[in-house]
Amino acid sequence: MPIKYYDASQTFLLETARSSYQMKIGPGGLLLHTYYGPRAVRPLPHTGQNPPESEVLPPDLFTDFVRLDRGFSPNPYDAGRDRTLSCDTLPLEYPCEGSGDYRPTALGIRGSLGVCGCDLRFRCYQIQEGKYTIPGLPAVYADDPADACTLVITLQDDAAGVQADLYYGLLASRDVITRSARIRNLGTEPIRLTGAASCCLDMLTGDWDLIHFHGRHCHEREFARTPVEERELTVGSRRGNSSHQQNPFVILADRHCDEDHGYCLGTALLYSGSFSACACREQFGLTRLLMGVQPERFDYPLAPGETFYTPEAAMAFSQDGLSHLSHLFHDLINSHIVRGPWKNRRRPILINNWEATGIEFRGSQILAIAEQAAELGVEMMVLDDGWFGRRSSDSAGLGDWYVNEEKLGCSIGQLADRIRDMGLRFGLWIEPEMVNEDSDLYRRHPDWVLRIPGKDPVRSRYQLVLDFSRPEIVDHVFRQIAEVIRECKANYVKMDMNRCLNDVWTAAEGLQSQGKILYQYTLGVYHFMDQLLTAFPDLLLEGCAGGGGRFDAGMLYYCPQIWCSDNTDAVDRLSIQYGTSFCYPVSTIGAHVSAVPNVTTGRTVPLRTRAAAAMAGTFGYELDLNELNDEEKKDVRGQITFFKEHWELLTLGLYYRLTSPDGASELAAWMEVERTGKEALVTAVSLSSHGNGPVRYVRLKGLEPNRLYRISIVNIPEPQFLFCRSGASLMYQGLLLPEDSAQHRDDRKIRGQYDCLQFLLQS
User: Fold this and answer.
1) Which helix (H) or strand (E) holds 520?
2) Is 474 exposed, middle or buried (CB count within 10 Å of its CB: 0-12, 13-18, 19+)?
3) pTM
4) d(CA 105, CA 197)
5) Residue 694 contacts residue 666 (beta carbons within 8 Å)
6) pLDDT digit string (tens) for 210-219?
7) How many CB atoms lie within 10 A of CB 307?
């Protein structure tokens, strides 16, 4: 069992394949965090006879602390005259507000007198086989209970009548530890939670940076690295969704850590609502990282006997740099978060009509796009916004989930059948959480939206938000949409959300708790998706929130892929997908080839560059293929054939970032490597063009040093063999990028700005 408790030292040790996590019951029952890092080597017994496991001492991982009388750091009352014991200086596993710890804390309680204060102490523990689950919330799972185990540590404050059960899930072979907390009101009076984080990490040693991923609509998950210093560095979302602006995945990286070297640990929150991540270095050098539900406006009521579950946080540690950390999270998401029939399978190559037609279209246009798509090898036609209600603009019709047969020229079932007769599957766009005021639904049920009485609502995209904290509203919307899915036998649904939450008030209650409404709203979204997948078990569900506004591990529990960004410009996508790759695997990144000039940026980028960017995701098209010339159509056929032949390498191979596509770099390069090292695909995009330019090399990764690789350029009309090189040469010296692809037209040269070459390596 990779979870052990050593009674003699009152120490818990959690061991994965390459990491160790240690806690200790300290003075007075305070639960202390003592270590998270590389796996320690257990010392061999000195005698020939092995002692019972319960008596074996754990590795010496910071089990001793320097305890000093620190000025202005208070002492628990039960410490008596011992002024060296203080919650303000100790590394704590789940610190509480009001315990004398003035640092950011994991748990805040407001009692019946309106006073904050909690002091959790150790009570008991359980070690269980299998991985715990969380009611109503997504969680990492193990297909075989033998592959995982759970530790539950119970902390309690008798005076406050509060119990916290700390859950730790271990997937030892995956090097992953998950955390969640269950908070119970054991008292006779109501209490309110003012904060309940999913995890806290107190790192005793090290100089750390916080890596986080910021952005905005159409430019999500930009890489940022900030030193953790003597201040509180907080990132998060107050928007009711995980947001375009910050992502619920952060990394603590040693100051000298890079892609291939150094210590780093990542934390991903499996939650799609408002969140917060806070890092700080406190006055005596300890670094604290907290992550969980956004505490602002939280104020969650718990009646006597009631329970609150925090969302799950998944943690992984790497001593070999950021690439290895990314591989740990990619494997975790692909194998233990994504579920259902599309897990680790190639997704259909689709075409979406949005950028070709927008809302205003006719069924004949959709059929024309589908007919051309079928001829070129596309596998699915997706009908985007505009097929329902009186949806002639984005100010009307949203919420009326009945088919606009006048616009389609037939029923949606007939349209889908005609598309299937072409050999394509059929998909549909929905936005179930939103409503226009100009809709039948709103006219019938104006009390179904989040809206503060006596105050005009805040609009966004002419939309109001349906109150998904109320199950009856979720069920109503589900029934309407499910009827349409049954009629058209949809194989795929893209579920969108095009505004953030505001005016947080529900007509279903009197005294309001905004924190409870926001939390229950997120659970309502999960319930809606769970109903869809239960009713249509073979459905491919793609998440979307104006692109990447809800791109998080919680959504991936229901949606095996998420639309990465509404910005389909291939050059911008290089940066967006670069940041996304630190946590999320290629298989989850919705990416399409779109028309040029791009609808968002106005930029013109070569077709092969657009295709290469889309192949670093789920791969599809979003344009009118009828507008391509014959040579471009030939290229599209080749792209589709190549992706089908190499999808396992592209989607499930080990992904390596070779360069950063920031302003300082003139080249964006990445590669996917088959897991035995036999095959790899290298993609290089030129970000600048110069006269008499430099010779360019890019160092590769993940190859077998002693293997000889045959290297070919594959994204040109006639694939061209270049040369053979050893893995060692390619990794240590680098791959030479040809300035001119001989025997091809001038516009086939990599030296052109935004042009791209893809190299297939085969041993």
Assistant:
1) helix 514-535
2) buried
3) 0.95
4) 8
5) no
6) 999 999 999 9
7) 12
